[in-house]
Write a structure and sequence with these properties.
The protein has three domains: 3-70, Multidrug-efflux Transporter Regulator, Chain: A, Domain 2 (Orthogonal Bundle), CATH 1.10.1660.10; 76-134; 160-250, Globin-like, CATH 1.10.490. 75% of the residues lie in helices and 3% in strands. The chain is built from twelve helices and three strands, in the order βααββαααααααααα. The chain has helices spanning 5-12, 16-24, 43-57, 62-70, 76-108, 116-119, 121-156, 160-183, 189-206, 211-223, 225-232, 238-250; strands at residues 3-4, 32-33, 39-41. The chain is globular.
Length: 254
């Protein structure tokens, strides 16, 4: 079966203009252009459009989608399995939020009492999903699904007080790290204090700790530009400084 721009757009629920734009940026080229100048799409292009729309639904940018789909290692079946996992997680998040709203309504009507933990369950799930979308692939490849799921479970089960403590640790790390950076010495007292706070923060999230994993995370902050950007937005060079401080703290060489 072949489709023109208009027919494919109508079937997929998107505009003809969108399909033409996808062609212009090279993310979805037609199978051919007929003698009348019309773009013609076949089965392969339909499947590719489906993948694009899956990624768009998950909030992935067109630039990133293009990089993913044009990668030599792209596997459509594996991608569909990943889409399914993320959509199930998204459904779980929506179910939690709906349940949260229902409980809040019931509490406002005086029918039930909600704990502080219950009030934030749906929002914590949303944060987990955001982190999975940004960093999940790299974390799972480096530390495995079991560790990633354990961390997510710990996060979901945090009380409001525990979550506040976790957030405070994150702020303290940055503040101490910036002060240590000004000394220029990753082996200094302030830098080592920052490394210790980072250890506490990781242990809080992971439920366990090893020096090797700590050093591995610090190195990942350098290897992945997104992590580097997070720290360097506070102070250029901060990610490298933290990595160096952690390597000294753990006595580890990468």
């Amino acid at each position: 079966m072949e489709y023109t721009v208009q027919k494919l757009g109508k079937m997929a629920g998107i505009s003809s203009r969108t399909l033409r734009y996808y062609d212009e940026i090279g993310i979805l080229k037609p199978a051919r252009v007929n003698s009348s100048g019309y773009r013609i799409y076949g089965k392969q292009e339909v499947s590719r459009l489906q993948q694009i729309l899956f990624y768009r639904e998950l909030g992935v940018s067109l630039e990133d989608i293009k990089d993913i789909l044009t990668s030599p290692s792209f596997d459509s079946t594996e991608a569909l399995q990943e889409h399914r996992r993320k959509l199930l997680a998204k459904r779980e998040q929506l179910d939690l939020l709906i349940a949260n709203v229902d409980k809040t309504i019931a509490e406002s009507e005086g029918r039930i009492m909600m704990s502080d933990k219950e009030k934030f369950e749906g929002f914590k799930q949303k944060l987990i999903e955001e982190n999975e979308k940004k960093y999940g692939k790299e974390v799972r490849e480096k530390y495995g699904d079991e560790q990633a799921e354990r961390s997510n479970k710990i996060f979901k089960n945090m009380t409001k007080e525990q979550y506040d403590e976790f957030e405070k640790l994150g702020t303290d790390i940055i503040d101490t790290l910036k002060a240590a950076f000004a000394t220029g010495d990753p082996a200094g007292e302030l830098a080592q204090k920052a490394a210790d706070l980072h250890r506490q923060w990781l242990s809080f999230a992971w439920g366990s700790y090893t020096k090797e994993a700590h050093a591995g995370v610090a190195q990942m902050y350098i290897d992945d530009e997104r992590f580097t950007a997070y720290y360097d937005k506070e102070q250029p060079g901060l990610a490298v400084f933290l990595r160096d401080a952690v390597l000294i703290y753990t006595g580890t060489k990468i």
